[in-house]
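Final report, Chapter 2: Outcomes

The project's central promise was a pipeline that accepts a single protein chain and returns its three-dimensional structure in a standardized token representation, suitable for archiving and comparison. That pipeline is now operational. To close this chapter, we reproduce one record exactly as it appears in the project archive, with the input sequence first and the structure output second.
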Amino acid sequence: MAQDTGRTLMSYCPDIKVLDCTLRDGGLVNNFRFTDTFVKNLYEANKKAGVDYMEFGYKASKEIFDVNEFGKWKFCDEESIREIVGDNNSDLKISVMSDVGRTDYKNDIIDRKDSVIDMIRTATYIHQIPTAIEMIEDAKVKGYETTVNVMAVSKVNESDLKAGLELLAGSGVDTIYLVDSFGAFYPEQIERLADLYLEVAAKSGKEIGIHAHNNQQLAFANTIQALRQGVSYLDATVSGMGRGAGNCFLESLLAFLKNPKYNLIPVMEFIEKDMLQLKKDGAVWGYDLPYLMTGVLNSHPSSAIKFIKEGREDYRNFYQELLEIE
């Protein structure tokens, strides 16, 4: 098992990296249709707040996804990012997500020397790991920092998870993410899983990250638990914006961290000026009873999203429907 890190709730942890994935995970709420003003203001807020990475969205294939159905952050063309950040002469690093089976990575991800992007994050299910490794190696050859998000691990048996992690540890990836896709984990489970990930990572010098969802209102607590175990890369979104129940709140995380480099005030100002208006314009996300049910039952939130969109309020019937599916 991982060694005791000695981290407490009051510890200063200089190795911590905070990654804002508001545009990517939050883009699942509004089909990535953010205004340039919103994106520019978020970029400036992250710079002032000392956030380490800002994820602009997906590198999705235009052969698979219709560009007319999504905003430009579904695709993250180089010129689109540069329109916001220029040459990004700042300490804030830029990342994008590449999904296994949904990204034309050989063509759409250009060499790092020609790009303003610093990090390529690969999202994979456990059975796709061999393809994910191929994508990771492609990004490494092109000069990028790399991470991998192994999704839906709450549905994976431990032997398969260990085997998958060992494969990733033998790859060129820099950081392996523990992902609570369905918001099903409790802090005690995060503690055990973080120890497993860290044990595998220690053998190959990898870092570990955490990406938590808020179905049971535990995303923040689970992120803190992972941090205490020694996890270094922490994902969050402004106001928890993300599909369904959303994610760990960036403002909560920055308020908690003791690192003097982080500053909560720019994020508060962004919420006041931009995020509140986004909600007034109709964007909906965040904890709700149907998401609690899917989290408790370790189910994909799609059924709860459908329930809410249909305006249903028959919670007891919905719970029985979920039980029958499970």
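Archive annotation: Residues 17-280 form a domain with the TIM Barrel fold (CATH 3.20.20.70).
This record, like all others produced under the grant, will remain available to the consortium after the project formally closes.
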